[in-house]
Design goal:
With about 230 residues, the protein is α/β, with parallel strands linked by helices. The protein contains 9 helices and 11 strands.
Amino acid sequence: MKPLVMIVEDEAPLATMLRYNLEKEGYRVCEAVDGEEALTVIAEANPDLVVLDWMLPVMSGIEVCRQLRRKPRTRDLPIIMVTARGEEGDKIRGLNTGADDYITKPFSLPELLARIKALLRRVQPAQAKGELTYEDISMDLTGHRVTRGGRSIHLGPTEFRLLQFLLQHPGCVFSREELLNAVWGPDIYVEPRTVDVHIRRLRKALNAGEEADLIRTVRAAGYALDVNPVGV
């Protein structure tokens, strides 16, 4: 059965556009127009992922997210927060509340679809068993091992966490600050350029067999794990 994606959005034209494109991609779709309705529909429909607007009538998206994370049944439900609030502090607040990802309006539809696909990949059976894969890279989370094309890759703890995060979000571009927050943690102060150092180490380890470089540097944006060039 195709994944069920829930849209929680009070702007009717945007909700209609999202439904059309998600159904075109093969997803099943359900909707809610305010926070209280969202909690009711989620309890009844049990969606695989929620695209959640921050600014909603009756109950905000932040409060919806907070309540979902308190319930065992929805504690691990993938949530993408969608909002017009683009300040870094707002993004951090949304992620700290429990959102798995955050995208700012106006957004690129292909980017949103890529993020949805990446988050849904987390709950696939292979990942439930502790395995992440992308192209010829495989990460065994249980055994703490990484291979590429069958070749064993030796990584330090930070490079391992960095690769794990990128494997969980293939095709998505992350700034240095976003990587610092995800890999090092929001309460740890590290210079943003430290990310560059660990990216170089990760590249060196992954490409020791002269394979294609799957870590793309996107000028003025950040880094992505992507088989196709996304920047220069």
